[in-house]
Amino acid sequence: METGAGGAERANAAGDLLARHWRSVTVAIWLAACVWLLWQRWGGIHWFSLGDTDDNMRISQVRAWLNGQGWYDLRQYKLNPPQGFDIHWSRLVDLPIAGIILLVRPFFGGRIAEQAAVAIAPLIPLLLALVAAALTARRLIHPRAYLVACGMVLCCQVALDMFRPLRIDHHGWQLAFLMLTIAGLADPERVRGGITVGIASALSLAIGLELLPYIAVAGSSIALRWIWRQEAKPRLVSYAVSFAAASALAFAVFASYANRAPVCDALSPVWLSTILVGCAGLMLLSQIDPARWPARLLWALGAGAVATGFYWFTWPHCRGRLEGVSPELYKLWLSNVREARPIYMQNAETIIAALTVPTIGLIGAGWAIWRARRDEAVYCWSSIVVLSLFSVGMLFWQVRAGPAAQLIGVTGAAFLGWHLIAWFAASKRMPVRVFGIVGAFLLVSGIASYGVFPLLPKEQKKDKAFWDKVERANRTCPTLPSLHPIALLPPATVMTFVDLGPRLITVTHHKAIAGPYHRNQQAILDIHHAFDGPPEQARAIAKRHGATLLLVCPYMSESTLYRSRSPKGFYAQLERGKRFPWLEPVPLPKGSPYWLWRIK
């Protein structure tokens, strides 16, 4: 029988092995997660079920590029033809998708190449997120705590949805760079940490401005460290230089022709100049470098005021909403986007799922600050607490901040989980060790909170039969079999719902008038005016856009807006069965969820 001392030695040896080979173990965890996620979505991959409008638009942008459209030309010509409209994205996220297609296509053909791309591409940023979480845990908690942190990332279901196969939009990459930013903030090597945060922030901005507030908070936390401790100067300098240089390079390489103008919704001269002014201010602070912290604080406030004033007075057109949508478009369209609403306007399940991990992470990070109060790690934990508080606050603005809030909370939750697991593992009783460790992980990872869902009161809708039709339409209308008969028709410009536009242009050769993108706002308004207004107005709008087909999916979510908002409008009349002489019905197979007309 093995002695207790021998068992302890073997456990220590195994622990040392895990700590020493953390990179290989993290990759193995990622590969196991990939197998599981691919198995989960295999049917959707086969049917090319890109459920989100942005995923459909992304693959359309990649196709256009591979078919000869310029690197800097991000205009989508299949929406709002013939002029199209400019997408505010960049080619950075297109690179892995296009690379997989080019690698697979010569061997298996274009269809399988695209299926492989939409399946594999979202998993690449998941690896970066796991590595960053592992690095942060090793630096702040324990060399073996990366196992808990990686497990936490995979249990953050709201965030994990951004990395699942088919989710090829840019959010997964931005979240991965956010995790890399946190790893940089936790890096004890000051210069390397500053460079990591600077480059990760610049790449995130090159993709889009969604995480701009978090980037600003991360940069401010680096400045605050210098205010508290003069020894943090190398981190401040390396951050300022790398952020400025990487942003300028990202602008030169990835900014589209449209984004070279002073637009507010992308990395453009507006944001590049503001970043350069802010980084120049940080460099100036590092050169002045007062000996006393109150003086450093005053100088930092002055530099921040200069950068803010530069932005405010140099780019006055960017003082409001960065999307620049009109009040009418906000009322008709953007205010109805569910993810743009605050968390208190969501159902109970969404609230619990979005808040559990960030709350646990805040508790864990707060405890970590207390334990590290006499150690330099307290500054790292302070940065994480500031980010966590900010991310939770963002949820009360828009629930779309949920994935970022969950991942920011991972480090604090991993700290709490690591110490709870260690406490249970030290027990001499095997049941306590086994059930305690499992229970602790389920608790701190937020998985246990899902057990509350069956106990929550179910939302009772007044007209269940109607909402069942809505759910069925949302599920069936975007599918390949439903759109196949429409794809067989000669190429045409189709007037259809805004949310159907990206899917239509992705899986057919047709063009559409509008998609749900703020730079396409006039076309979006035209579609809303067409379905809300009188039939004569709809006909005039179709003629102005050169549309020769009218396609609707009755009961699809967007149709409910027109139905409730304008009960006497064009769409409501169509749904009630009224027909017009300028619309010639086009027969579709029995059971098709669509209604299709040729516009005379």
From TrEMBL:
<keyword id="KW-1133">Transmembrane helix</keyword>
<feature type="transmembrane region" description="Helical">
    <location>
        <begin position="297"/>
        <end position="315"/>
    </location>
</feature>
<feature type="transmembrane region" description="Helical">
    <location>
        <begin position="116"/>
        <end position="137"/>
    </location>
</feature>
<feature type="transmembrane region" description="Helical">
    <location>
        <begin position="377"/>
        <end position="398"/>
    </location>
</feature>
<feature type="transmembrane region" description="Helical">
    <location>
        <begin position="351"/>
        <end position="370"/>
    </location>
</feature>
<feature type="transmembrane region" description="Helical">
    <location>
        <begin position="432"/>
        <end position="453"/>
    </location>
</feature>
<feature type="transmembrane region" description="Helical">
    <location>
        <begin position="404"/>
        <end position="425"/>
    </location>
</feature>
<feature type="transmembrane region" description="Helical">
    <location>
        <begin position="236"/>
        <end position="254"/>
    </location>
</feature>
<feature type="transmembrane region" description="Helical">
    <location>
        <begin position="21"/>
        <end position="39"/>
    </location>
</feature>
<keyword id="KW-0472">Membrane</keyword>
<protein>
    <submittedName>
        <fullName>AcrB/AcrD/AcrF family protein</fullName>
    </submittedName>
</protein>
<feature type="transmembrane region" description="Helical">
    <location>
        <begin position="266"/>
        <end position="285"/>
    </location>
</feature>
<feature type="transmembrane region" description="Helical">
    <location>
        <begin position="87"/>
        <end position="104"/>
    </location>
</feature>
<feature type="transmembrane region" description="Helical">
    <location>
        <begin position="198"/>
        <end position="224"/>
    </location>
</feature>
<keyword id="KW-0812">Transmembrane</keyword>
